[in-house]
Design a protein that fits this description.
There is one protein chain. This protein starts with 11 loop residues before the first helix and ends with a helix. It contains 8 helices and no strands. Helix 1 runs parallel beside helix 5 and helix 2 runs antiparallel to helix 5. It is mainly alpha-helical. Helix content is 83%, strand content 0%.
């Protein structure tokens, strides 16, 4: 039976977009709502939350698509250049590939033998993987990053909105902050689990970062509210 391993790094193409969208949704939406709530404008808090959800999801979708498309274009340019070099000077490229394996610890004869076998199997894939570090499973996918970011943002932005709708008006500020911090801790833990990273460290990092952002925004909202009155 063939042994198959699941490498967690293969999830990086979509996991980064999902974690970024989810974390940004909770922090930005809850911070926006807490800033409005601290300014003592209760009727505007829900509107701010819904506006933040909509604008944030669209912003994440467009931002991810543009940034990841740029990365994809750079990869495509490298692939085209490497393909042309393989046609123009195959022997030089073969020696270059053997040199890579030699630097990794193989003797000259074995390095050349490995290079020849991999070239015979899939010449371009061997150079992309070992010379440029490009693998198909890890290539940039703009559309995937775009919709995952937008969906995760819209979903997790509902956390502070739901907290506002459920909590009494007098406790809105505390409900938004507490619920958002719990959600951030859970998100950090889950993201670390998917990526195979230490759970506690990720949860603490995300929670502290989000808490600081919310506290600063609430303080500014409070000061603006006091000034306006």
């Amino acid at each position: 039976m063939r042994h198959r391993e699941i490498h967690l790094s293969t999830r990086s193409s979509w996991l980064r977009a999902a974690v970024l969208g989810s974390n940004d949704a909770i922090v930005s939406t809850s911070s926006l709502m807490m800033g409005v709530a601290a300014a003592d404008a209760p009727r505007s808090v829900l509107i701010a939350g819904i506006a933040g959800l909509t604008a944030g999801a669209m912003s994440m979708a467009v931002g991810e698509f543009v940034s990841v498309s740029t990365q994809r274009d750079a990869e495509a340019a490298d692939i085209a250049k490497e393909s042309a070099e393989l046609v123009a000077s195959p022997q030089a490229e073969l020696r270059e590939l053997a040199g890579i394996y030699h630097k990794r610890g193989l003797d000259d004869e074995l390095a050349m033998a490995v290079a020849k076998q991999l070239t015979a199997h899939d010449e371009l894939a061997a150079h992309l993987r070992d010379e440029l570090g490009i693998e198909e499973a890890k290539r940039a996918r703009p559309l995937q990053a775009s919709w995952i970011s937008a969906l995760s943002f819209a979903t997790f932005a509902l956390v502070p909105i739901v907290a506002l709708l459920i909590a009494p008006r007098s406790a809105a500020l505390y409900a938004i902050s507490a619920t958002s911090l719990v959600a951030l801790a859970a998100l950090g833990t889950f993201g670390a689990y998917l990526g195979g990273a230490p759970l506690l460290r990720a949860a603490v990092r995300v929670t502290i970062g989000g808490g600081v952002a919310m506290a600063i925004t609430a303080a500014i909202g409070h000061l603006l509210g006091v000034t306006a009155t």
